[in-house]
Amino acid sequence: MSRWSLYTWTRDGRSLRRTLPTLTFLAALLTASAGVVAGASGAVERDVLGSGGLTQIELSSFEGDASVRPLTRSALRDALHLPGVRRVVADYSSALYAEEEGTYDLISHTLTPGDDLPVTEGGIPAELGPDEVVLPATAQGTDFAPLLGRSVAFGYTKATGAASGTTAVVTLRIVALYDPAWQADGPGVAYLSQDTAALLAAAHAGQQPAVFQDREGAQSAVVVVGHQKQVAAVTRALQEDGFSASPVSDRVRNLPGLFGAADLAMRVAVLALALGAIVLGAVRAADSTRARLSQFAILRILGSGRPELRRILLGEAVLSGGVAGLVGAIGGTGLSVVLAGPLSDVLGLPIARTDALPGPVWVAAALLLPAAGLVVGTLLGSREVLRRDPYLTARAHG
């Protein structure tokens, strides 16, 4: 890079330094989007797949959709008998509420193999017993820490008619508490064994548990296979048998809501940064060269050739692209780190600040693409202007 490049870049307002704001914004958008996606992917992979999600398949039941097989007991038995399937756990949803102390009203779910709860106190056994429950550390103003290890009476609804019901009581021992920020199934969820969850759901429907499981079925289920390599084959077999089945690992590739948008924004930003740098470089280089045509003409008359003048412009392009990439990468990374906390609430999984750091490939793209694009654009944009006769140019400009 010519020393004249640094001089003209810092001193001349008509240099390629004018491209800095636009390229800096594009580089920051790229790194911020990459950080958001990295944080989401890391959180999902750690909290969802860390519990063995690579060997799990989700079954869903859609009410009113006759094309999807309901998750009744007989259907789940068929799924269990498929080659490679080791375990099937059905999820039944209902509610538990305060019977003696407090005013909490908790949604209840089956604790499935896909639930990797961030336990803060106590411990979750390999399989919950019918009289055990896992609760959030706090919910709706109630602190459950003093109740850990104790048997507590909970109320639940037992339907007695089409629009009537009564309160029944179930006594459960609180074996563990988890971080309430973990909200994969929503805020304030009580996790139960499959049998207890089915009992509560059946009572809410006014049916016996066996009848409810045979008629209504579960709202979802988790199928555990023996090895990751069997997931694809078992998923196909389940789908052919009428189930709505999808591997749990697909959650990483199909991130929800804001994270899916961030992933798309990241890919668009890469294309926009590359094309934007080239187009901006071509336009700005042509404009900058025309604005300084008399200066370049004098330099050429004094002995400077077109290659040397082109090196000055290329030096300005490298400086502009390098500064834009560096500032944009730092700013975008800082933004993604700052957003780690709010994005944790959106996803319902904890995202550490280190998780929100963009990958090295994306950082390298943010650093290199602005300079590379400007160099290409400069070569294209300055070619025609530098071909003009310097003597005619100098005479025309007095």
Tally of DSSP β-strands: 13
The unreliable regions are none
Quaternary status of these chains?
Answer: single chain
Number of helices: 13
The percent range for helix content is 40-55%
Overall pLDDT level? 81
What is the CA-based Rg, rounded? Answer: 32 Å
Structural class computed from helices and strand pairing: alpha+beta
Described by the principal axes of the CA atoms, the overall outline is elongated
The strand line-up of the biggest sheet is 3-4-11-6-10-9
User: Termini separation (Å)?
Assistant: 31 Å
Largest sheet: 6 strands, mixed, barrel
Order of helices and strands: HHEHEEEEEEEEEEHHEHEHHHHHHH
Strand fraction equals 15-25%
Overview of this protein structure:
With 398 residues, the chain is α+β, with helices and mostly antiparallel strands. Helix content is 49%, strand content 18%. The chain has helices spanning 3-11, 20-47, 73-80, 194-205, 209-215, 231-240, 250-253, 257-291, 293-301, 306-338, 340-347, 360-386, 390-396, and strands at 56-60, 85-91, 94-98, 105-110, 119-122, 132-136, 138-139, 142-143, 151-159, 165-178, 189-192, 220-225, 244-247. The strands form three sheets. Strands 3-4-11-6-10-9 form a six-stranded mixed beta barrel. A hairpin with a 5-residue loop joins strand 9 and strand 10. Helix 2 runs antiparallel to helix 8 (257-291) and helix 10 runs antiparallel to helix 12 (360-386). The radius of gyration is 32 Å and the shape is elongated. The model has no long low-confidence stretch (mean pLDDT 81).
